Amino acid sequence: MLTEQLLSKYPLVSDQVNKNQLHVILHELEKILTNGLDGAVVEFGCYIGTTSLFIRRLLESYRDNREFHVYDSFEGLPPKTMQDESRAGDQFQAGELAVSKKQFLQQFQKTGLRPPITHKGWFRDITDVEVPKKIAFAFLDGDFYESIRDSLRLVLPQMQQGGVIIIDDYAREALPGAAKAAHELLGNQTIITRHNLGIARL
């Protein structure tokens, strides 16, 4: 598997995701690529681009030209709602983790990698037209209840049978809204937990 090779060769450009989590994300994507499942790769919430860079590296390693879309407000975190309240999560405030679209794209310029199709906007404002008609793999890193809910509403109708959705912070005490939204929209779908990630194989 190429996941281990990429993780040993390239550095992480932020501390918002660790190597264990990246291993899970890339390993699940690599299974999609080796199985040849048709459909785009989408990422909702990218920050500075650590995960995005590794996804692109994996796609290029497989010479896989499927569409890769990234969505982010590029304005940091949105306000919390009641669903996100947690004594452990006081540090997560509106406007934190703000990175511009230009800063994100500069990471790809530095590495010589082809940037994904990049969409700027709050997830609630993203329309169906901006989402691929077939999705094989979705990584959702919206932190809060409404962000995960809104991104799931966009990707679920387009997910292919055999596709995978990974939800960041699914098992994180400080961000309970992620799991609440996942349970609400995925219903009885089995969700496996690994390194605070929730994995739904459809």
Report on the architecture of this protein:
The protein is an alpha/beta fold. The chain has a single domain (2-201), classed as Rossmann fold. 34% of the residues lie in helices and 18% in strands. It contains six helices and seven strands. The protein has helices at residues 2-9, 19-35, 50-61, 101-111, 145-155, 177-186; strands at residues 40-44, 68-72, 117-120, 135-140, 159-167, 192-194, 197-201. Strands 3-2-1-4-5-7-6 form a seven-stranded mixed sheet, with helices on both faces. Helix 1 packs across helix 3 (50-61), helix 2 (19-35) runs parallel beside helix 3 (50-61) and helix 5 packs parallel to helix 6. The longest helix is centred in the first third of the chain and has 17 residues, at 19-35. The radius of gyration is 16 Å and the shape is globular. It starts with a helix and ends with a strand. The model has no long low-confidence stretch (mean pLDDT 94).
